[in-house]
Specification:
Oligomer: single chain
InterPro entries: ATPase_BadF, ATPase_NBD, Euk-type_GlcNAc_Kinase
Protein name: ATPase
Distance between the termini: 54 Å
Strand order of the largest sheet: 3-2-1-4-5
Keywords: Kinase, Transferase
GO molecular function, one term: kinase activity
Structural class: alpha/beta
Number of strands: 10
Strand content: 15-25%
Radius of gyration: 24 Å
Number of helices: 12
Helix content: 40-55%
Order of helices and strands: EEEHEHEHEEEHHHHHHEHEHH
CATH class of the largest domain: Alpha Beta
CATH superfamily of the largest domain: ATPase, nucleotide binding domain
Largest sheet: 5 strands, mixed
Shape: globular
Length: about 350
């Protein structure tokens, strides 16, 4: 009596990649470095984090933090099983310098990884964290700001992102700088300080004597102290005052409200440089200034819904977006909506 045996599975339905293949996603930001390792179905098997990894400002410490996060993520995992890797990096252009890239390569291979990593910009990672679609627009507005046009998951055009000295209009830095300028204007005109201006003064000169401010001639003394203090600090730290603007906005301060409104206008104009009103692809918003809890972000969403077609989305975890992109590098058929949902949500 013969036993009927099932036919073998057709070759074209077999998994093309080894079942043990892993992918790695990374997000190197100014304040944190995060790494995720996942299997080919998008299940996370390792995570690592360390301090800032922006290669522009402090490449040596950034590379060291990169290595620390890699080793933590790879603990208990065979790093040689990682067959695709996508790393999103703020300031990634610095990696074009051989000396900087050598430090990051040493951290990478020192963690036991053998595959060549693909470094891309934080704009592409932010877009991928917000949507699985291949085409669209993304606006990042945090400490700095930049907009990008994405086609086939690749960045093809940008607007702004010029840095605090030449651009970043509407960013956290811009809000902080304009808040200080409003305080200096009050000093110049001899006007009483408003809620925002007083809060900025308290944050930058917490030990100043209020009695000096009460005298008209004291304005010049405090103004000079303020200018010296601002110039003593790294310029980018002005972005910390963005929270002060938001707080004053919530308390009804007119100067703060005007700054928030102007920031939204500037960011809208930045997006308008690269996105047409007929574009119906997704528009992803990323960064603290463009966030759902930010008054600037709320104004942006209202304006974008009126001006642009297409869904307005919020970027999620950047490192998860990078990991999802790495799945697509491993095998394009793995860059599915379900895997995106599993990783990003």
């Amino acid at each position: 009596m013969s036993v009927e045996r099932p036919l073998p599975e057709p070759v074209d339905t077999l998994v093309l990649k080894p079942a043990g293949s892993l992918v790695l996603g990374g997000d190197l930001g100014g304040t944190s470095t995060r790494i995720v390792i996942a299997d080919h179905e998008g299940n996370v098997v390792g995570r690592g984090a360390a301090a800032g990894g922006n290669p522009i400002s402090h490449p040596a410490s950034a590379a060291a933090n990169f290595g620390q996060a890699l080793r933590a993520a790879a603990e208990g995992v065979d790093p040689a099983a990682v067959k695709a890797a996508v790393i999103g990096a703020a300031g990634g252009s610095a990696l074009a310098r051989p000396d900087v890239r050598a430090q990051f390569d040493a951290a990478w291979y020192g963690a036991g990884l053998t595959v060549e990593p693909e470094f891309i910009g934080d704009i592409e990672v932010a877009f991928a964290s917000g949507t699985p679609e291949a085409d669209g627009t993304v606006l990042i507005a945090g400490t700095g700001c930049a907009a990008g046009l994405v086609r086939d998951r690749k960045l093809v055009r940008t607007a702004d992102g010029h840095g605090w000295l030449l651009g970043d209009d509407g960013s956290g830095f811009w809000l902080g700088r304009e808040a200080v300028r409003s305080l200096l204007l009050a000093f110049d005109l001899g006007e009483p300080l408003g809620l925002l201006q007083d809060a900025v003064l308290q944050q930058l000169l917490p030990d100043h004597d209020p009695a000096v401010i009460a005298r008209r001639e004291g304005y010049d003394i405090v103004r000079d102290e303020l200018i010296r203090e601002v110039n003593r600090r790294p310029p980018v730290l002005l972005a910390e005052l963005a929270r002060t603007v938001v707080s004053a906005y919530g308390q009804g301060d007119q100067t703060a409200q005007a700054l928030v409104k102007r920031a939204a206008e500037l960011l809208t104009a930045t997006v308008g440089r690269i996105r047409t009103t007929k574009d119906n692809t997704p528009l992803v918003l990323a960064g603290s200034v463009a966030g759902e809890q930010s008054p600037v972000g709320l104004l942006l969403r209202e304006t974008f819904h009126q001006r642009f077609d297409g869904e307005i989305l919020t970027a999620r975890d950047g490192v998860s977006g990078a990991t999802w992109l790495a799945l697509g590098v491993l095998d394009p058929t793995l860059a599915t909506r379900s895997n995106h949902t599993r990783l990003v949500s």
